[in-house]
Write a structure and sequence with these properties.
The complex is a heterodimer of chains A (173) and B (100). Chain A has 173 residues and is mainly α. Helices cover 81% and strands 1% of the residues of chain A. Chain A has two domains: 124 residues, Four Helix Bundle (Hemerythrin (Met), subunit A); 36 residues. In chain B, helix 2 packs antiparallel against helix 3. Classes of the chains: A mainly alpha (173), B mainly alpha (100).
Chain lengths: 173, 100
């Protein structure tokens, strides 16, 4: 019973945040509601027992990635978004299609997915077991992600640098 | 004890909201945030299925998805800054030419 109450409360916060992201016209409001979605998703991970995932959800997603987003919104001084003809057509057809699609999807999942019940904290994912997997079974993918991050850092620096300064470093190097 | 399908429905709703935001939003930063919302929906179903089959690999995969999302956010926001510098707008309807 406690499980169902906690799941519903934080699930509703999640959905409300996601809908608020769509409704708000200012990007900073959307960003803040996305942070609410991520924080309540961390609670859902906790309910499933995935403590490590819940913690990195808060630290990486709600912490690092969203700070980057808010930083860029403030840097570019993004204002209200303008509605256009194309977005009105997307609204007109997109909203009914998504409502019908998610209703059918939810019905299929609840009635015919063939999945069982999960208890509260069903699969504990303590950091030592996750680390065993990451540094033993998934060692190669883990090392590849470090290269990926390195490439992403260099790409971000090159892309965000002013064109003149790139020319300048090319001449020097 | 609650059915696992509730978690899957929640993850499906989050994913659908992400798709809808991707379609109806006109601000390039908000579109980018909708992609993050979709990734979050997928992560929830990874963790839910991991709990169903008692395999910790699902939680490790969430870690990898987050790493990719972080890399994507860094590169994507750099691209947004570069676009804003040349076009002076964030509205995707006005960014419709490959060449300036």
């Amino acid at each position: 019973m406690v499980h169902l109450i906690l799941f519903s409360v934080f699930g509703l916060i999640c959905i409300a945040g996601a809908v608020n992201l769509l409704v708000q016209s200012h990007p900073i409001n959307s960003a803040l509601s996305l942070i609410a979605v991520m924080a309540s998703l961390a609670v859902e991970y906790m309910l499933l027992g995935a403590e490590f995932v819940a913690v990195i959800q808060v630290i990486i997603y709600a912490g690092a990635i969203m700070v980057l987003f808010v930083f860029v919104i403030m840097l570019l001084n993004a204002g209200q978004e303008e509605r256009s003809k194309g977005s009105r057509v997307a609204l007109l057809f997109g909203i009914p299609a998504t409502v019908v699609g998610s209703a059918i999807g939810a019905w299929v999942l609840i009635e015919h997915s063939g999945t069982g019940n999960v208890a509260i904290g069903a699969l504990p994912g303590p950091p030592n077991q996750i680390a065993e997997l990451l540094f033993h079974d998934f060692l190669l993918p883990f090392e590849i992600t470090s290269i990926l991050i390195l490439i992403a850092i260099m790409g971000a620096v090159v892309l965000a640098a002013r064109p003149e300064s790139v020319q300048h470093t090319k001449k020097e190097g | 004890m609650i059915p696992l399908s509730y978690y899957l429905v929640l993850s499906g709703i989050l994913f659908t909201c992400g798709v809808l935001g991707f379609l109806i939003k006109r601000n390039i930063i908000t579109i980018f945030m909708s992609i993050e919302l979709m990734l979050n929906g997928v992560n929830l179903s990874f963790v839910a299925f991991a709990a169903q089959w008692h395999v910790l690999g699902g939680q490790v995969f969430v870690f990898f998805v987050m790493v990719v999302a972080a890399a994507e956010a860094a590169v994507g926001l750099a691209i947004i800054i570069a676009v804003y510098r040349t076009r002076e707008t964030l509205n995707v309807d006005r960014i419709d030419l490959l060449k300036l």
